[in-house]
Structure formats: C-alpha cells, structure tokens
Amino acid sequence: QVQVAESGGGLVQPGRSLRLSCTASGSIFSIQAMGWYRQAPGKERELVANITSGAITTYTDSVKGRFTISRDKNRGWLQMNVLKPEDTAVYYCNVDLMERIYGGMPPRRKQYWGQGTQVTVSS
User: Fold this and answer.
1) How many CB atoms within 10 Å of residue 115?
2) Using CA atoms, how far apart are residues 7 and 40, in angstroms rounded to an integer?
C-alpha cells in the first residue's frame, strides 16, 4: 500500500505566498509523475501543475509564472506566489507510480491521492 499526505495549506491574503508539500510513502518502486490538482466549491477538480520523472513540468494557464512545482524522490512541493482569491480551493496531490508487489510479481502502475489541503486566499 501507498500513502500520500499533503500539508502547507491555510488562510493567506491576496498577493502573499504559500508552499504546499506532498509526501508519498509505502510500497513504492518508482514514481512516474507527481501532480497538484485543486477543486473549488461547485467546480470540477482541475490539474494545476505536474512534474514527470524526467522533470518536465506543465502548468494550467492561470498559474503560469506564479506557481512552481518541484520534486525530490518521494516528496514534492508547490510554491504558490502572488496568490489570488480565485486560487481558493482544496489542493490535492496525485502520485503516478509503480507500486512494489511482493511475492515475485512485477511492479504495477497505479495512482494515489492525498486527502487534500485547504487554501483560502482572502483579505
């Protein structure tokens, strides 16, 4: 089994910064990609940023130039600068990985989600 945990959310004023953290632990053979999603009330969950095992990053247009995704082994971060009220949402970490299967079976690809962390941008 694999566990994913996020931290770092909170209440912040517009224009300020927050840094979210994500840690994956458990039966991990390798991580293919790590992504940050967010879901605002009444809206669908959307991809905010993603980083592959080759360190290729992608961002949704609304956060380009303000957010930076990074990763080191089983930990990832989302640095969020110049926050806006429209960034308010629950932020989720998604880990696309190869899960270690014991008993001689090959690793299997699977995605895991964290429980989410609330980010509120308000004056």
Assistant:
1) 11
2) 18
